[in-house]
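User: Can you model how adenosine-5'-diphosphate sits in this protein?
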Amino acid sequence: MTEQRTVLSVRQAERRYVKGQAALAGADLDLHAGRIAALLGPSGSGKSTLLRAIAGLERLDGGEIRLGGALWSGPKTHLAPEARRVGMVFQDYALFPHLTALANVAFGLKGAGARDRAMAQLEAAELGHKAGAYPHELSGGEQQRVALARALAPEPAIILLDEPFSGLDRRLRHELRERTVDTLRRAGATALIVTHDADEAMAVADELALMEGGSVIQTGTPEEVWMRPVSAVAARLLGDVETVEAKAQAGRADTPFGAVDAPGLDDGTPVHVLVRPQAIGLTLDESGAFTVTRRRSAGTHLVFDISDSTQRHWHAHTPSPSPIGEGDSVSVTLDPAYVTVVEA
Ligand code: ADP
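Assistant: Here's the modeled complex, given as C-alpha cells:
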C-alpha cells in the first residue's frame, strides 16, 4: 500500500459527560489525505462524541487532537469550532430555513466571488437550477446535497458527516451514498463518515474504524477488517459470525468442524475461533454430523441453518443453486480464508 499522509490525528481521546462514565475512553484515530474513513459502531459507542470533539463542539477530558502540526484539542487547549478548518454535514442537514440553497452554500464564504464560488459548488452538486429554492422546497436528498455543498465550499481540511443518509429511504440512500462518495472524491476531500450501518460503512470507506465502548478497536480497509477481525466484538460489528471457544493445542484449535490453524499461541491459550458463514461448506452426506434445519435464499447466496447433536445452530452461506434441502444430513468443511483465531 502507498504511504498515506496523515492529516488529522486523535490520540487517547477521553470524554466523560457524567462522572465515571467514559463516552470516549482513550480513542485513537488517523485521517489520511484524500481518503474517506468510516467510523462504525453500535449506538452509544461514542461515534458522535468523537466527531463532535474533532469539530470542536465537545471538549476533551484527556488526550489530544492535532491537524498536522497544530494542536486543536489538548490539555489546556481548545480551539474554537469556527477556527478549525472543518466542514460538517449533520444528520438533519441543519440548513438555514430562511435562506435559499445558494445563500446556504455561500453562508460560510468570505470575500469577493463568494456568490460565484457557492454557485459553482451547487452546480457541481447538479443543483444549480435549485439555487433560489428554500430548504422546505427541496427533497430530503436535495437538502443533503446542499448541506454537503455548503460543507465543501470553504475547502475545509477535513469534512465530517454524521449519519448523513439515515433520514432517507433505502433506494434513495443507496443513490445518495454513491453520489456523496463521488462528490468527496472529486473534491479530493479528507472525510470521516459516522454510521451504525455495516453495509454502508463498507460501501463508502477507504478506511474503516470500528468503535466500541468509547475506543477505536480496529482500523484497516473494509476487506482487511472483515477478513481479519481482531476480536469477536469486531467481527460481529461487520456481520454474521459464529464464535467457537477453544484452547490452542500444538498450533491448532478444535472446532465442531475440525481443527484450524492457531499459529504462535502457547498450548492451553484460550482462543475464539471466528467463523464467517461463508467459511462453512456443505456436502450431502448420509453419515454427516449436521442436519439442515432451514434453507432460504438471500438472492446472491443461500443461507442454511444447520445443527449438530448438541443442538447448537450455525449459519452457512453457500453459492446458489444447491441440491441440499431442509432435513438433509450434511458434512461440513471450513474455508480457512474466512476463519480467524484470536486470543479470548
Ligand atoms: P454514538 O454516536 O456511537 O451513538 P455517542 O457519542 O452519542 O454515541 O454517546 C456515547 C455515550 O455518551 C453514550 O453512553 C451516551 O449516552 C453518552 N452521551 C452522549 N452525549 C451526552 C451528553 N450530552 N450528556 C450525557 N451523556 C451523553
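A couple of observations from the model: The pocket of adenosine-5'-diphosphate is lined by residues 17-18, 23, 41, 43-49 (CB under 6 Å). The helical segments are 47-55, 101-106, 114-124, 140-152, 170-186, 198-204, 222-227, 232-237.
User: Helpful, thanks.
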